[in-house]
Amino acid sequence: MPTEIDAATTLDRPPLFSEIEHRLADACRRLVALCSHNSAEGQELQDKFLPAISKINQVVIGPLEANFGAFVAIEDVLYLKEEPVIELFRIVLSDIASQLKAGRTISAAEIPALLERALMDYVLHELRHQSQGVGDYGDFKLAKSIAGRRFMAEMDVQADRDAAFAFSMLYTHGNSRAEFLECFREALFLSSAYYFRIFPPTPSRLDKQERVAAVMLMSARLAVIRDFNELVERPDLPLDSPLIAKISTAQSTLAIFQGQPNVRLLGAANDAAVGLLVRQLDRSQFDDALETSISLADQLGLLPDN
């Protein structure tokens, strides 16, 4: 055990935790099965996630010692640090309450599934760090001290994209590309709506700004789509492609690259919109930042025709 959980702690656990833990463990098992599919998607899942999930049989949300970071896998158990999970649930439930007040109908039976999806994308991001070689918190800190914050931010962006990919494979029914892209858009939305509120970008830190800007630009390409069934994707830049953002130290110029495995420059912007985006990210104004990202993506010719 990463830390002792006494009886009082166990009794005080939110009653929903046990159901969510079972749901997450089941999702991990389903992802293992998807890794065996004889397809390019199955091979990608196998390369990026199988080493991290193949042994997981149980998920436990609870207290973790600081040296473990956000999670730790010990034998067949994945332990998740409870503080960010509780904060995530608080934000999601608050959002659900706001939607109910606005007239949306959400039944009580739907809430565990909504919480599962919100948490699963977060878990997939953390598990991707395992296959990236930086799943151990000590290894992550060592790599950052050697390679620098901005390089590690690129790894974070890749983990964001790959988590969205795995999330979409998990929650798409059948082989519908349209449904896959809707799930991919949902996963990226979870970052801006929830995760970046729990772990907000540090003002004036280029590495943090670049990571969030990259996720926003990936989201922007999907946010403008009205009908996924009528969509024609660019063969050289599919809508689930990873993007990398680089911001100048003066915070006035932005370069966008396609990420792995086909790294290339897609375009650059040097106008007031770049500074505006940076200020919005510093202030955690993510809705406004998405609109600015849509404008920048349009300017750079990255939006799909729809």
Features:
mainly alpha, 58% helix, disordered N terminus, globular
Please specify the SSE layout and strand pairing.
Elements: H1 7-11, H2 16-35, H3 40-53, E1 58-62, E2 71-74, E3 77-81, H4 82-101, H5 111-131, H6 137-147, H7 149-171, H8 177-198, H9 206-223, E4 243-247, E5 254-258, E6 264-269, H10 272-282, H11 286-299
Helix pairs in contact: 2-3, 2-5, 3-5, 3-7, 4-5, 5-7, 6-7, 7-8, 7-9, 8-9, 9-11, 10-11
Summarize the structure.
The chain contains 11 helices and 6 strands.
Q: What report would you give on this structure?
A:
This protein has a domain of 135 residues. Helices cover 58% and strands 10% of the residues. It contains 11 helices and 6 strands. The protein is globular, with a radius of gyration of 19 Å.
Oligomer: single chain
Q: pLDDT below 50 for ≥5 consecutive residues: which ranges?
A: 3-11
> Beta-strand percentage?
5-15%
Share in helix:
55-70%
**Which series of helices and strands comes N to C?**
HHHEEEHHHHHHEEEHH
What class do helices, strands and sheet pairing give? Answer: mainly alpha
- The value of Rg in angstroms is 19 Å
Number of DSSP helical runs:
11
Quote the average pLDDT: 90
**Biggest sheet architecture:** 3 strands, mixed
- Report how far the terminal alpha carbons are from each other: 51 Å
Q: Strand tally, please?
A: 6
Strand order of the largest sheet: 1-3-2
Q: What is the 3D shape?
A: globular
